[in-house]
Design brief:
77% helix, mainly alpha, 5 helices
């Protein structure tokens, strides 16, 4: 846990915050916020892969954008009342990736990136 003086919300405050964010902002607004955070994270990750070392984003920047996206997705999931379905899909996806990793069918993207870097 960080020691910068930040105090997380209580369980009650968290529930109230989610309620407010889904009541004050409509579904379309929350969707736009998810897209905005996705775009910001995407830009940082692309820079991480494509820029020289001194131009790559700091780890803290990536953590910040991932946290922002994680929160905005949680708000949208709450707003759409699809938590169970999303959790089920995540479980299924993890199982698929697990099977792919066990059988060696995962990692082709890394191979492609390495190959491209070698040719450049």
């Amino acid at each position: 846990m960080k020691t910068d003086g930040f105090e997380p919300l209580t369980t009650e405050q968290t529930a109230e915050a989610f309620k407010l964010l889904t009541e004050v902002n409509n579904k379309e607004f929350n969707m736009l916020k998810v897209l905005e955070e996705c775009t910001e994270l995407q830009h940082l990750l692309i820079k991480s892969l494509s820029k020289h070392e001194e131009l790559k984003p700091e780890k803290d920047e990536i953590i910040e954008e991932m946290g922002d996206l994680f929160l905005r997705m949680a708000v949208l999931i709450e707003h759409m009342d699809i938590a169970d379905e999303v959790e089920d899909r995540a479980d299924r996806k993890l199982a698929l990736l697990y099977e792919a990793a066990k059988t060696g069918r995962i990692g082709s993207t890394v191979t492609i990136v390495k190959t491209v870097k070698e040719k450049v």
